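Study this fold:
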Amino acid sequence: MDNIKEQIKIALIKKGYTMTRLVDELNKKHNRKDSVPNLSAKLSRNTLKYREAQEIAEILGFTIEWLPTDNTLDNLL
């Protein structure tokens, strides 16, 4: 399974985004002052919060979906 850093890099390429553009749009939408080095460090250290991953997915036009790995969850849903 790919880690979040790889998945975000792939999504950036597919959507034609740079990290700078992504961070600029995140800052504008959420009224923050994050930086590219800050996001890169979170991705490298695997310390990105789930909420931040959702925000990145939204900016890039993706959703995060939980899928069962086997049929055991089918009985619970």
